[in-house]
Amino acid sequence: MLRSNLELIAMLTIFIISWSALFLLYSVFNLYAPFTNKTIDLDPIFQPYGRAQDLLPADFQPRPSEEKRDWHDYKAMEQDAKRVGLGEQGKAAKLKNSTRDLQLKLNEKYGFNALLSDSISVNRSLPDIRPPNCKKKLYLSVLPKVSIILIFYNEYFSVLKRSLHSVINRSPPELIKEIILVDDYSDRDHLHKPLEDYIAGHFTNVRIIRLPRRMGLIAARTAGARNATAEILVFLDSHIEANHNWLPPLLEPIALNKRMVVCPIIDSVNYNNFELSEFRPKGHRGAFTRDLAYVILGLLPENIKFPSKPYKNPVMMGGLFAISTQFFWELGGYDEGLDIYGGEQFELSFKIWMCGGEMYNVPCSRVAHVFPSPHKKPYNVPAGRSNYLFKNYKRVAEVWMDGYTKYISWYYEAGDIDVGDLTKQKALRSKLKCKSFEWYLKNVAFDVIGGYPPFMYASGAIQNLGDANMCVDVLRHDFLQPIGLYTCAENLVFPQLPQFWTLTPHWELYMHNNFMCLEVRTLKRNAPVWQKPCHRKGGNQFWNYDYKSRLLKNREDGKRCLEMLPLNKTVVVNACNKSNIYMRWNIGFINRTALQNISYT
Ligand SMILES: *[C@@H]1O[C@H](CO)[C@@H](O)[C@H](O)[C@H]1NC(C)=O
Ligand SMILES: *[C@@H]1O[C@H](CO)[C@@H](O)[C@H](O)[C@H]1NC(C)=O
Ligand SMILES: *[C@@H]1O[C@H](CO)[C@@H](O)[C@H](O)[C@H]1NC(C)=O
Ligand SMILES: *[C@@H]1O[C@H](CO)[C@@H](O)[C@H](O)[C@H]1NC(C)=O
Ligand SMILES: *[C@@H]1O[C@H](CO)[C@@H](O)[C@H](O)[C@H]1NC(C)=O
Ligand SMILES: *[C@@H]1O[C@H](CO)[C@@H](O)[C@H](O)[C@H]1NC(C)=O
Ligand SMILES: *[C@@H]1O[C@H](CO)[C@@H](O)[C@H](O)[C@H]1NC(C)=O
Ligand SMILES: [Mn+2]
């Protein structure tokens, strides 16, 4: 549930989740009914905090002059280096009896090769893929203790066990005060008695909090944070593997500055073979597009020059980070009006930067994350509003993004989405005297506007003129299959995610929120259209909309156009032909000013 994103595939999960009908669950008080006693008197959230030093408890002073030490656990590293076997050293693994069919079934059900996971040790070794300099780094010898909050919903047992063992095996025991597992109302049997027995048999400082009903990621993290007692909160997913010495580099910046929020670098565990590799693009400095999709900005030259040095991160990927408990609550924790999942990483990131904090990525701290297969069936999320994502985003934008909201592609159309009461959030912003969004854009996310100019050429559903019921749709396919057509969303300007396309100033046609660009790989007849990572090189990913002829042209020469094959009810690319009605398309929103300025056609 890392945002993830960044996470190509995890992002897909977002919309997979969003496609399913959802059950509405969010009045704050209902949500927290089971925690109500605490909620009321624990509401330190909106107490005014004054100066930064008020945040420091008497018994915890930063010790910048303190001795440093080498926190590596060399014995554990040595033992790990000797391990051999399936998946050891983070190598790609394969079961002898595995078939493609079985793999697909597993991917649908679990999002990864669950049987393979069962055959890989929960204590498996990982390669040390940190920048070489990290091996020599020393950190303060006195570091604050952490509460690790690991939330899960129907997590696969061996994957959850591996997450726990990796954290415990690779953290200095004296730094972990407790590990709090938050169960977001799982219904798989193994997560009840068997999990409790396993924990009792293997760990001493791990406890489980069970939510009384499905509440979603945001509420689950909040419940974990309320239960935590250590000075620092570390939020993790339940399908991760912590690498050597991951914890001290996360904690030192916070020990030195309580308003520092720190993210590890997230590596990737392949869902088919459990191979560990470095996440691409490297570094994940996070940001957002005009749609408020999470995107990854390139590293800055100084980040590349000093690869082990922490660097500023405008927006967290979302799933894995460390923050001082007090700062978290000073910021009000997560906005409790956010439903289920989505937008919370923007909310927290904006608050951190605008309200006196800073956020860094730490290249010496590595945690690997299983990015699930796009085949994964949507979670059994309680039904309700299908547009909770937009509701969340709009809530965040309304409170934090000031005048920038006018640039958000869908904002005007989202006018009728009720975002609920924002009084508390706005009061918090004024109480903490937070800076403006303009300040944030200038000083922190300074390359967002350049990379993602605050306007687009066209966006929304792409509707065929030959058959007005048909719109271009991702069809929930794996990226291994071409996109297709589906019955159009009711609102063409602001459709559901699988039909929400954007034609960008980079001449890419991409889907809101998943960083995948439409690409045509051949010049043959009936060329299929694929979703592929955006390469910014034009050519097979170049698209241009001629709003007069309504042709949607691929490649700079404008000779090939998107076409619906009415018999097959599919989309392909063929030589342009204005007289072919099936080659003509409406797009929900078009910016004529921008489209008129086309120098390519
Ligand atoms: C494949 O082998 C593994 C152990 O080697 C076993 O646990 C699993 O059940 C087998 N799967 C099938 C489909 O036979
Ligand atoms: C994994 O390591 C822990 C010690 O950290 C040990 O208690 C446990 O038995 C090991 N499990 C396996 C399957 O190797
Ligand atoms: C944390 O939750 C557990 C289980 O619900 C409860 O027993 C404990 O009192 C809680 N601790 C805090 C500090 O809230
Ligand atoms: C479309 O369907 C026809 C007949 O149903 C078939 O011959 C043709 O190969 C199909 N084309 C594509 C691109 O799938
Ligand atoms: C263009 O489309 C029209 C209408 O479908 C068709 O009659 C004509 O043959 C097409 N022209 C070419 C060159 O394919
Ligand atoms: C028009 O295009 C040119 C170059 O193609 C670009 O520099 C300019 O900013 C564009 N103007 C508008 C209004 O989009
Ligand atoms: C349309 O594009 C122009 C640049 O060509 C931009 O200045 C303007 O803000 C855009 N309008 C909208 C509504 O996005
Ligand atoms: Mn995740």
From TrEMBL:
Organism: Drosophila lebanonensis (Fruit fly)
Name of this chain's protein: Polypeptide N-acetylgalactosaminyltransferase
Coiled-coil regions listed: none
GO molecular function, one term: carbohydrate binding
EC number: 2.4.1.-
Family per record: Belongs to the glycosyltransferase 2 family. GalNAc-T subfamily.
Ricin B lectin domain location: 459-588
UniProt keyword terms in alphabetical order: Disulfide bond, Glycoprotein, Glycosyltransferase, Golgi apparatus, Lectin, Manganese, Membrane, Signal-anchor, Transferase, Transmembrane, Transmembrane helix
Entries under InterPro entries matching the protein: GalNAc-T, Glyco_trans_2-like, Nucleotide-diphossugar_trans, Ricin_B-like_lectins, Ricin_B_lectin
Gene name of the encoded protein: LOC115628418
Membrane topology: Single-pass type II membrane protein
Pfam families: Glycos_transf_2 (PF00535), Ricin_B_lectin (PF00652)
